[in-house]
Structure formats: structure tokens, C-alpha cells
Amino acid sequence: MPASSTPKVTLYFAPRSRASRALWLLEELGVPYELRVLDLTRADQKTDELLALNPMGKVPIVTLDGHPIWETTAITAHLCDVFPEAGLAPKIGTPARADYYRWLSFGTGVMEPAFMDLVKKHEVNTRQAGWGDFASVKRAIAAGLEKGPWLLGDRFTGADLVTGGTLDFFTMWAADQFADIPGLDAYLKRLRARPALRKAREIDQEVFARQEAAHAS
Ligand SMILES: N[C@@H](CCC(=O)N[C@@H](CS)C(=O)NCC(=O)O)C(=O)O
């Protein structure tokens, strides 16, 4: 992509939130971006300006030349295509692309709601609920990690950012619920060793500390 057509990337971000995956994505892509920090405790995400970008009033939101994209999976899928040099998405129409779509969908569309049901003790009919039960989710993750080192085999992709990033977050919250998934510890170690994830964590921590200091003053 010629430099002149590189879109301006802005991430609307809050620390310790689901926006951390989008921050990690931008670090993996290695593209310049502007970080617009929101304080969720002050409801910055519900201002008219922000609701015009995302009517859900949630982060992350990424704008590309002002065009808003929200939902982590959509952000990841689109940015991996817009910045193909990073090699985070398999070629369209290939079996690897099909697997990539599956893991992109699975992280936020299946694993997250099944995990929330479990920890919040929601009673759902898992035959009717589109995301199923947590035992099935764990079986699917174990099958996905069998080959390794990444969900698509040899290649780290946006799917590891979404599903792996969600696993990274949930296992920090409730490690015991994931303890019996073969291969998961090694997979998480590989994810956490990635320089882009480490950098995103540092930024997250700095922003969090600034917000905490502002709340205390
Ligand atoms: N499905 C969305 C979830 C986004 C989301 O729930 N973000 C939370 C932070 S973890 C948020 O912005 N909450 C603020 C609110 O709802 O007011 C995604 O994956 O991007």
C-alpha cells in the first residue's frame, strides 16, 4: 500500500478493558496510531460524540480516516486485511481462512458468553443458546490447540489475538476454570512472550495508573 493511502488510525481505548486486544493488534501490525483514552468510570464512552461512533457506548472503537469500526472481531478482521504486510490473515478462499474466521467468531461470539454464564451462574438452555456450554467450549479450545504452536498451526494470526487474547484475559481472572485444557499453559506463555503484547500491557498499565491517580486527586 503506498504511504499516501495509509489510513489514519485512531483507537478509542480504556485500560483494563476489552480494548486491550485492539491495542495489542495495533502493536502487532506496527502501524502508527493515535490513542484516545476514555475513562469508563466517568462514562466517557456515553457522550454524544462517542455514541455517534458506537451506539453501544462501548470500547474498543477504531476509526480509519474517521470511519468507525466497533466490535473487536470486526476491528481485527478488517485491520488485518487493510495492513496485509503484517501477515496476520490467511489468503481469502483458503481452508486456513475458514479456520481463521471460525476462531475470530468463536472468541467473542461463543467463548465469552459461555464463560460469563459460568461465572455469573446464569441458567440457560444450552441447546437453545447459540454459544453452548462451557464444557464444549473447553473441548473446542483443546482441539484447536492440539497442533500448535498457534490456533492455525505454524502461523500467528488475528484469530490468536481475539480467541487467544480472550483466553489470556479470562485465565487471569479465573485460572482454575481453564486448568484442565491440555496445551493451554504453553499457548498462553507463547502469547505473553510476544513483544507486541508486552508493549500493549505496558501502555495499558501506564494509562491505568494515570487514571487511578486522577481519581485519587
Ligand atoms: N463485544 C464487544 C464488547 C465491548 C465491551 O463490552 N467493552 C466494555 C469494556 S470491557 C465497555 O466498553 N463497557 C462500558 C459500558 O458498557 O459502558 C467487543 O468485543 O468489542
From TrEMBL:
InterPro entries: Glutathione-S-Trfase_C-like, Glutathione-S-Trfase_C_sf, Glutathione_S-Trfase, Glutathione_S-Trfase_N, Thioredoxin-like_sf
Ranges of residues in domain GST N-terminal: 6-87
Cytoplasm among keywords: no
Top-rank lineage group of the source organism: Bacteria
CDD domains: GST_C_8 (cd03207), GST_N_GTT1_like (cd03046)
Keyword Transferase: yes
All residue ranges annotated as the GST C-terminal domain in the record: 93-213
Coiled coil: none
GO MF annotations in UniProt: transferase activity
UniProt keyword annotations, A-Z: Transferase
UniProt name for this protein: Glutathione S-transferase
Organism: Rhodovulum sulfidophilum
Taxonomic classification: Bacteria, Pseudomonadati, Pseudomonadota, Alphaproteobacteria, Rhodobacterales
